[in-house]
Amino acid sequence: MPSYGRGVTSQNAVGDLSPTERSTIRRGRARAVADRAVLHAILDAGLVCHLAVVVDGAPRVLPTGYGRDGDTLYLHGSTGARSLREAGQVCVAVTLLDGIVYARSAFDHSMNYRSAVVHGDAVAVTEPDAKLHALRVLTEHLAPGSWDYSRRPTPKELAATSVIALDLAEASVKLRDGGPGDEEADVAANAVWAGVLPITTSFGTPVPAADLRGEWDVPGHVSRR
Amino acid sequence: MPSYGRGVTSQNAVGDLSPTERSTIRRGRARAVADRAVLHAILDAGLVCHLAVVVDGAPRVLPTGYGRDGDTLYLHGSTGARSLREAGQVCVAVTLLDGIVYARSAFDHSMNYRSAVVHGDAVAVTEPDAKLHALRVLTEHLAPGSWDYSRRPTPKELAATSVIALDLAEASVKLRDGGPGDEEADVAANAVWAGVLPITTSFGTPVPAADLRGEWDVPGHVSRR
């Protein structure tokens, strides 16, 4: 069984997901991970982002689908309705949970996670070819293989679709991994179990639609996922 | 194997997680689920929320831990740093993904999900007893059983902790379940497989901290999770 040590974490920008804030300050090993590949990997591994906009001076956040093409993030523009298209300035977060960190002290409990946050001005994608491309990216992110397998959008469907694009220029990554960061006195006391409970997200058995007629094999791009 | 029918969904407020927006409009069955028990259940099932604030007129969203006590949501106040405590007005979203909806058309692909969004003014929890209570709620949400098992916060740790409270008065729930909502012509063509790929989140095998000394059994509140 693998075990984590206190000092063996490779990239560790702690804080946001800790139940308390001190761990950020005390550990002092928080650092933004500038690596673009890490940013891309987090965005590619997530399925849903949380999109924040300002409406009449107040914050609004909503979950929505997205997809990445290079350093462009496409978002489903219907989210936030009118507000989004008026707002322009957005903030988008994608968060992946990797584990619950059980520490000796309640105070040092935390989570292992990978998180990307992107700031920027959302741009409406209106040109039909660009929109079709964006929809392909969105669909392939949600359901890889579906763009070629399923029926493509009609011009009417395309016109009814609202997509925004966001540049990944202003993006940051935070992550925490490894074991608990307990106080030395708590470690020395050795009175409490400590460790990490991993969290995994997985796909189950495909459930066919009730209105499918005849016998169907689940297509490979779904069954192999 | 269970199967979903197009018309059998019970509660279906579609839209935010669809790759396209038309499904919301066309289906016309979007509705907010007012049931408080559903709101509570979603909040209790999630582990991380996304907290949005406005900083200098711009939106900012960050993942953070939370916990619920009745109709009060406690959040880890260090998130958003100074901005949060200045902002007051916040918006918090908790989203649970339940499945990928594969439709006959790319356009009707969607996600099954449960989502709660809360608006309100965040209030700093400063009184020591109230803060201790909030920290208990936060800890027990993240790691049920840990409050009684692990070392409780010292006065110093408590003082170093920043917690905010948010009333659940202004909260809404959206969810989508069931199978794809394809066009009748696409269903009639019967040319494409359609259905739902369920998504599940689960806990793995606990990984003990490297600095645990001696032989340890994983405590029940961790191993049974």
UniProtKB/TrEMBL annotation, chains A, B:
Region Disordered, residue ranges: 1-22
Taxonomy, superkingdom: Bacteria
Q: What is a GO molecular function of this protein?
A: oxidoreductase activity
Q: Could you tell me the keywords of this UniProt record?
A: Oxidoreductase
The protein's name: Pyridoxamine 5'-phosphate oxidase family protein
- In short, the EC number is 1.-.-.-
The record's annotation in PANTHER family points to:
5-NITROIMIDAZOLE ANTIBIOTICS RESISTANCE PROTEIN, NIMA-FAMILY-RELATED PROTEIN-RELATED, FLAVIN-NUCLEOTIDE-BINDING PROTEIN
